[in-house]
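thread: overnight batch results

M.L. [08:02]
morning all. the overnight job finished for the chain we discussed friday. pasting input first so we're all looking at the same thing
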Amino acid sequence: MKRSPTITWDQLRVGIVILVALGIIGIAVYKLGQAANLFAKRYQLIAYLPDANGIRTGGAVMVAGQLAGTVKSIEFLPVDADTTRNLRLVLQIDETVKEQIRRDSKGKLRTMGLLGDKAFDITPGTPRARVLQEGDTVTVAPSLDYEAVIAQASGAVTDLVALTRDMRAITGGIVRGQGTVGQLVTNRALYDNLNGTLARANAMLAQFQNPNGTVGRMLNDPTLYNRLTGVIASTDSLVTTLNSTKGTAGLLLRDTTLYRNMVGITRGADSLMRSLTNGQGTASKLLTDQTLYDQLNKLVADLSAVLADVRRDPSRYTKGLVKVF
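M.L. [08:03]
and the structure it wrote out:
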C-alpha cells in the first residue's frame, strides 16, 4: 500500500512542535552560554597555590567579585621545599576584563557565601602596573581558612561551655548561701541589720536637718559662712600687706638690705672664728696655748691658797696696817 505523498496536518503539527522545541533549546543554550561567557574570547593566566580546598576544574574565576572566567585545570607540581607552590592553576579569563588584571593584582580563594562553593577571585590592579599577558602568573594573597576559623570557634565554644559550668557552680553556691555573696543573698539577719542601719541613717539625717543642732546650724545658718568669708578676706589682706614693700614684714620679704647685712655679719663672724683658731693673737692664745692655760690655772690655785690663808689668819696680813694714836 503506497503512502500518500501529501503531508497531513498531524504530521505538520509534530514537525512544528519539534522545530519550536529545537529553537527553544538553541535559544536556551545561547543564553546560558552568554550568561556563563562560554562564547567570549579568553586568554590564560597561571596561579600557584599551596592547596585548593573546595575549588575544582571548571570552577568560577572572578574579577572584583564578578564572573570573568573558569578554572581550566589544576595540576600537581613536583615535591620541593617551597610548600607555597604545590598546585598550578590554569585560569581562562575573558578578554573583556584584561585591562583590569595587572601586575599588582592579587588572587585568592574565596567562598561564594558562608558555606558555598569556592571561587578564585582576582582584585583589579592600578594604572602604574602593566597588564598581565597570556601565560603570566597572578600573585596569590593568603586567604581566610574557614576550617581554622571553625576550629578556633570550636575551642571558644568549649571554653564557653566550661565557663557556663563554672557560673552554674557559682550561682548554685550563692543560692545555697555559701560564701559572702551567698550570705548577702540568702541571710535574713543581714537584711535586718542593713534595714536597721538604713533606719538609723535616716534618723541621723533627720537630726542633721534639725536647725537647732550644730550640723543643722552649719548647713542653714549663714553666720559661719560670713565669718569664714571675713577670715578669708582678712587673710587676703594680710597676704597683700606682706607682698607690699612697705612695713617691716614686707621689707623682710622683699628688701635685700637685711640679707646683705646678714651676709656681712656672717663673713665677719667667719673671719673672727678663723682668727681665734689660727693660733695668733691673745684671744687665739687663750683658746689654743696649753702653756698659758697651765699658768692661769696655777695662778688661780695660788690665789685660792692665799685667800684661804687670809681667812684663817687675817691679822697676819693686816698687822701694822692699823695704827692707834
